[in-house]
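Forum > Structural Biology > Help requests

Title: Can anyone predict the 3D structure of NADH-quinone oxidoreductase subunit N?

Hi all, first post here. I have the sequence for NADH-quinone oxidoreductase subunit N but no way to get a structure on my laptop. I'd be grateful if someone could post the structure tokens.
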Amino acid sequence: MGAIITLSLLGILVLYLGLYKAKNALLPVSILGLLIAFGFEAYYWNVEALPLYKGMVIFDHFSLSFSMICIALTILILLLSKEYFKAISDSIAEYYTLILFSLTGALIVCAYHNFAMLFIGLEIMSVALYILAGIRRTDKVSNEASLKYFLMGAFSTGFLLFGITLLYGSTGSFDLAVIKQYIIDNPTGVSSMFYGGILLLLVGLCFKVGAAPFHFWTPDVYDGSPILITTFMSTVVKIASFAGFLKLFSTVLVPLNEFWTPVLLTVVIITLFVGNVTALMQTSYKRMLAYSSISHAGYMLFAILSIGPNSASGILIYSAAYGLASIISFGALILVKRQAGSDSFESFNGLGKKNPWLAFTITISMLSLAGIPLTAGFIGKFMMFSNVMNDYHTVLLILAAINAAVGIYYYLRVVVHMYFMTSNEELKIAMPLNFQIVFVLCVILTIILGIYPDALILSAL
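Reply #1:
Sure, ran it for you. Structure tokens for NADH-quinone oxidoreductase subunit N below:
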């Protein structure tokens, strides 16, 4: 709980720093506060995990692991923000404050033990992002992204709340332990209202993670938002949402998996094809990443579809790999777009000659997203595929392999443009020190996790 309180107070402090024109202190104070929050999470690692505050939250190894990944990725994203927000807005304190509040909601989602806290966490996380998506008030595309995100978010919240209501009506409680005990005590007498609640919860959570056919908001919101905000949404927000998704289905709804597995299996197949096929057709690098994030949601759903002892560790590795690669990919887009003024694939032409280090960094991220061996992305996909294989979902495994091959094609398309196509623009892209630090850290961690994934697979998961 120390991390949640720290981040809440930090957001208010940063807002006051902006009010008193202490703009140069915003980034260092934010990073310091995040490190303190990370320290609180590490401290609770050896503390006995019990539901706290009348069973509202629990800080077990599962929630602490995902919370620490969310905090670490936020630190990397904020390191990229130096000078970025100044270029698009005079009121930069609001960016940091809203990101910190959204992260606070993400930590609550990771640690919830009661449906009330799940709802509160999701809303704190989402409301801040509704504002961040449209914070460029003079940009119509950004305004459109904010409006779409708000409308679809409110729509998904309705499904989520209705599902929670039906489960409450069946069990008389919002507490996960009580709901789980209800299922155990009534193996053949579960209320039909309870089954309806499961379906509505599934719809609401699929909206939050951007799974098809509930993905309509994803490409336009990712494309219209500022690049760093898109980075935060596609990494921290998605990871926290999957942590909440996995916790509910792995700890409570496993006994009823014969009911919800066919539904989720259909969602996974649709998600894989929609994400990969549409990403293949894009001419914009940013929209390609937006659609590919849908396909990654499909792969991450494997851990929920085939729940087992390796589900948590598998989705943890996949989350870390996807987060690191996405930070590199979107960070590189910031640099390229500054010079080229466009996010098309042609903007990357000749980058291998103009800036070999930046091209190498992007290549590592593309290989990781594609799941090529010796990268973290390969280990993540391998663990997801292993989960499916253990449950004998043979057809899904074949379809997933086909989609993985499609993914390799459009990710390597970026590499082809960098190394095998020439550019009329000969100016070398400048890489600020903060970008160099973040890229080096992400590349090293991507390779380490690809070679030695046990460094992150925690014994308790």
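The chain is about 75% helix and 0% strand. The radius of gyration is 21 Å.
Shout if anything looks off.
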